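tool=predict chain=A
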Amino acid sequence: MFRKRNCKLAENEKLLSVKCEDGYKLDVMLTIPEKPEKIVIYVNGSGPMTYRTMRQKPDGSLYSYHQFFADELTKRNILYCRYSTRGVTDGKKSPGFCNINEKDYKTYLPMNSVSDIECIIRYLREKEGYSCPVYLMGWSEGTIISAIVASRNNVKVDGIFLAGYCNENLKDTFTWQIMGNSSITQYRRLFDYDKKGYICKADFEADKHSVRKAVFGDMTFEQLDKNGDGKLTAEDFAAPDYIKATFAAIEKGDDKWLAESNGVRLTSDWWKAHFALPANKNTLPGLDLPIHIFAGDFDSMTPQSQARDIERVFKEKGKTNLTVHYLENHDHDLNYTAFSHFGKVSEGMKELFDTIENMK
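tool=predict ok
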């Protein structure tokens, strides 16, 4: 069914309502070039997203996260498909600019996300009549969902592109983040000028990018160096009490605490379901379709080392269908803000788009 809501669609946009296996109606947006040669489906990362996903620039103006991808892909004759997370619609309140229907959002679970992608692909084939190749572009959590879709083989997927690649189970990845690794990765990008893996006092005082005040306020190096070893490392920013409280809330099903205390709105059922899933390191080696991973060395959410780990496994098994793109000075979003804030396409994004375009 074609759906048109109270939003203005461009001439090359089409808004669909795709019926999922459990009857939920998923909002799906297409941006369609004149002669589509292939289809790319964006597989959402964790938390609330819509087919527009509005965000705010430093000057206060709003932009659609997906418009960048739509523009870059359609000019390469690639149809771009994205969807709204279950229970999520566009809203007006910052920072997320979305509204959440609590009942429907509770059905946002990883295996529902998997079957939803399968339903989208079937719809594009059977209802919209597209016969061109279909590729999944998964980001963060989407790298897990994309791999599972491909492994189930319920629908034909011609290849997967994975950015912010998550190799380990989400419980292990989340623990890595909260035990100081996410913080130090971001701080190292600003202060670890020779990439030695930590920040020394000389780096801190040099403040070559003039960001120390904005990042750390009036805190001294000694105050930040909690273990007193003369360098800032993950240990100095670890939050063991927070991760303990988070796991306790997940176990108890305390969604209220999670909503108030976690930066990304996620339910206890979502967490539990992810903890029960096999890690990508166990799923990906079973795939024979083309796989491309795009890994930034300053990814503070899913470390680049995870991409190196899976690449090693593929080499040991003699498999040649995985290509890892190692991107220097790129973050979890492949420096997306270079475009959203400055109108420039990052080298990582260029490599992503060129790889998709050249995929046969």
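The first strand starts at residue 13 and ends at 19. The radius of gyration is 21 Å.
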